[in-house]
Structure formats: C-alpha cells, structure tokens
Known about the structure:
Elements: H1 10-15, H2 18-27, E1 32-33, H3 34-40, H4 45-57, E2 61-65, E3 71-75, H5 77-88
Antiparallel strand pairs: 1-3, 2-3
Amino acid sequence: MSARPLIDVPPLDALGHPWRRRILAHLAGGPLPVSELHDRLPMSRASVTRHLRTLMDADLIEGCQLECGKVAVRLCPAGFRTASQAIGLLGGLKD
C-alpha cells in the first residue's frame, strides 16, 4: 500500500459509485456472462462496460470463461483485501 493509504486506493474509489456496487451485488452469487449483466442493468452497454473496466482496474472483478464458453466476470478477492486493509487503518484513529 502506498504512503498515502487512504488517498490512493483504487478499490475504494471504484466502490464509491452506486452502479458499481450494484454490479458487485449481482456478482456476489457467482460469475455472470457479461451479456447477462448488460441485460440486467438499466443502462447502456457502453456504461456497463465502462463500470466493468473500472472494477477490473481496481482488481475487484476479473474475467473468466464459463464451461459453456461464454466470457464472464467474477469477484476478485485481491481488491477487496486491499480495500479492507485501507479501511482497517481507520480503526487506529483517535477520538
């Protein structure tokens, strides 16, 4: 983690958007084809794709391939660990 642990944390930045949190909620049940996420969310395909890219860049999701051969995305623990560590630093703050 950087010297500025609560300033430069891409997963925290990515979690700040309600649509990205909604995407993560859909993925909490397991991997989903990208096309299914497009169908589930009431926004343009381009917007969904942009949010997916942000979540991937923050290591909150990763691409995978389902047994049927479809391209899918799933949650990626690494980004959540990074966010959790950054939030954990707040536990040491004094009143």
